[in-house]
Amino acid sequence: MARIPGVRERGRSGMICTDISIAYFVPMPNNRHIVLRQRPAGPIDPDHFDLLRCRRPEPAPGQAVLAVEWLAMDPYLRSVIAGRHLGAALAPGERMPGQGIARVIEAPADGPVQPGDPVVTDCGWTEWVARPAEQLRRLELPDGVPPQTALGILGMPGLTAWAGLHRVAAIKPGEVVAVSSASGTVGAAVLQLARAHGCITIGITSETKLDYVKEELGADFVLSRTGDLPARLAAGDIPRFDVAFDNTGGEVLAAMLDHLALHARVVLCGLMAQYEQSERPPGPNLGPVIGARASLHGLVVYDHFDALPEFLATALPLYRSGRLRCHETVYQGLDQAPEAFCALMSGASHGRVLVRLKQ
Ligand SMILES: NC(=O)c1ccc[n+]([C@@H]2O[C@H](COP(=O)([O-])OP(=O)(O)OC[C@H]3O[C@@H](n4cnc5c(N)ncnc54)[C@H](OP(=O)(O)O)[C@@H]3O)[C@@H](O)[C@H]2O)c1
Q1: 308-320 vs 185-196: helix axis angle to the nearest 10?
Q2: Reported CATH class of domain 8-147+327-356
């Protein structure tokens, strides 16, 4: 098995133990998982993780055994590592949490899932996991739709975009919708869903992804987050934003707030610019929000899971017609998960970042 730089492996092999009267074999570990080794003080790198070998879980009564096939790399995991997420913090030595798609291998006969069924679940960064069968549902996707889209454009990130646009900002055709981190999964969905609704769209992204956001995602205007964004916005040719959907915070948010239309709605969705900082930076200048009589809305996707069918009723036809898509960066094997996550957090990756696990 390949060893990734910085990721230590422990519990590598089985062992023959002998004494005078007996010889017995301690079984080889047949599962692997990734734990947090150390909380980073600044930007995260693969050295902050350990890859451990362990035994596959034995199911307790009522549990199903799952083989993980895909892992989603999500920015909220960085907040979990920092101890700043809405839910529990992760202590060093604990297994990385996270959503994935897994295949049911063993399950109670009378449960809601059966062997062979794919499921979306909070499996964490592991190859095999046991979960209460009652909490699992078979993943149903129409023919021809790749399963990993349920972790991306047709899953939680897509729903986040939809909920922010329709439930929080209540977008109307003809309005100007600007989104930061526009090349990411949430950003890509925001752009394309807003466009499909008849809005004028503006994508803010890094220099290297401008063409992708314009050509592939169809943004009407693209702006570089790494250039002089305030000066670019002041140039006069970019319409003011009726809706500012922010995924980054920091200077990008400050520039967006300075370019609001009257009665704009600002959707505060994420903080890519500050997840890697150990200290919370000083807040943005909110003066322009007052001047524009704008409202700021905090968005948490957990409040909107009931809208999944409504979201999919819009998103699936768009997906099938090629009008809702997202680039995927796929890493192979659990040992690549730390590298994949660090690339996501540094901005080096592109689009939905996934890890494909082969059993
Ligand atoms: N509120 C909720 O319920 C909810 C739910 C899901 C996700 N979110 C949030 O939504 C945001 C987007 O999520 P996503 O999954 O689609 O991730 P993502 O946008 O793909 O995140 C990675 C991207 O962030 C961008 N970025 C912007 N500023 C950055 C900076 N200072 N340093 C590094 N990267 C930076 C980079 O894209 P560019 O190079 O294009 O700028 C990078 O590729 C995240 O903040 C996430 O936490 C919130």
Answers
A1: 80
A2: alpha beta
**From CA 166, how far away is CA 313, in angstroms rounded?**
13
pLDDT digits (tens, 9 = 90+) for 7-17: 455 444 444 44
Give the tens place of pLDDT for each residue, 312-329: 999 999 999 999 999 999
Closest-CA residue to 266 (of 237, 234, 292): 292
If phi > 0 it is left, if psi is from -120 to 50 it is alpha, else beta; for residue 293 that is left
Q: Which of 181, 192, 325, 342 to mutate to test the pocket of ligand 1 (most atoms within 8 A of CB)?
A: 181
If you average pLDDT over residues 37-46, what whole number do you get?
Answer: 95
For the entire predicted model, the pTM comes to 0.88
Q: Where are the domains of the chain?
A: 8-147+327-356, 156-320
Q: Are 102 and 118 in contact (CB under 8 A)?
A: yes
CATH number of 156-320: 3.40.50.720
Atom of ligand 1 nearest to the CA of 269: 1
What's the pLDDT tens digit per position in 97-114? 999 999 999 999 999 999
DSSP, collapsed to helix, strand or coil, labels residue 215 as helix
Which residue's CA is minimally distant from atom 40 of ligand 1? 205
